[in-house]
Amino acid sequence: MAESVNKRQSNAGKAPAVTPKSPPPGPGAAANNMVSVETALSAAVGVRVRLHTTLVMYPHLEGVILFIDPTLNALAFVTRPPKPTHHILALSSLKDFELLPNNAFPFPPLLPPGPPPLLDTQALMARANASLAKAKEKAAKKNPNVSKEAQDIFDALGRQLPTRWDGKDIIVMDQVVVRGPGYRPDDCKAGKGVAEGTLTRVKKVLENERRRLAQRDAGTGAKGPKPVIPAIPAIPAFSGGPRKGG
Predict the structure, then answer these.
(1) How far apart are CA 8 and CA 114, in angstroms?
(2) What are phi and psi of 139, to 5 degrees?
(3) CA angle, residues 12, 14, 3, in degrees to nearest 5
(4) Which listed residue, 27, 45, 109, 114, has the most CB atoms within 10 A of its CB?
């Protein structure tokens, strides 16, 4: 009885075993200043550590714990030299870990010293407005109130000249109107003060694009009914005897 009391008193000043609850520590854990996962993991965030895991591909990892998620029972870990690699590890996959001195291996800080950089909200708003304007411009080029042929003509003209919709009419370079629903060279009307050469150019481009679209449609094989193959007349059976009167 006295002997067991003396043993408990002698062990009272010693640190508890530095191992997690599930797997036993790896070899040499007692000699490597191991820390308890339960009590020291939260204090190890942002600190250089060496992890010993049950993972076959990554039995040992050296780097920095970025954060711990107690809800998912996982931690985010990054290794820097020779190449930064991020890992999401389940806490149950940890055998143990040890804190490393600052000069254990070259590991530059994750963030520069000092306060974190401020976000340039003006630049972010400018990018958002530019993206929104681009989306609106793209949507404005699609007219749900015209036929597919009219939209194809608009898209074809827009690849060469600035175009926009005005109802069912196409405005080219803000100088020439292509009237719908015909959209033919004769439907082109120039505004006041527009040079005759501008109108001629738009007509020429429109004529070429209509011809190209017609050739494209003809090449799809979707025009006209399918050809009808005439039926082959049946051949009368031969009786084998001589024909009368022959």
Answers:
(1) 49
(2) -70, -35
(3) 45
(4) 45
Q: What is the mean pLDDT of residues 89-98?
A: 86
Rounded to an integer, what distance in angstroms lies between the CA atom of residue 142 and that of residue 158? Answer: 12
R_g of the chain, CA atoms, integer Å: 41
pTM of the model: 0.41
The pair of structure tokens assigned to 221 is 């094989």
Residue 239 CA, distance from chain mean position: 77
Kind and range of the H or E element at 239?
Answer: none
94, two tokens: 């940890």
Give the burial string for 61-73 (b: 16+ CB within 10 Å, else e).
bbbbbeebeeeee
Q: Where are the alpha helices (DSSP H) in the chain?
A: 2-11, 37-40, 121-140, 148-158, 196-219
pLDDT value, residue 6:
44
For residues 92 and 64, is the Cβ–Cβ distance under 8 A?
Answer: no
- pLDDT for the residue numbered 15: 34
Tokens describing residue 223: 């025009």
Q: What is d(CA 169, CA 244) in angstroms, rounded to the nearest whole number?
A: 79
pLDDT at 133: 93
Angle of helix 148-158 relative to helix 196-219, nearest 10 degrees, comes to 120
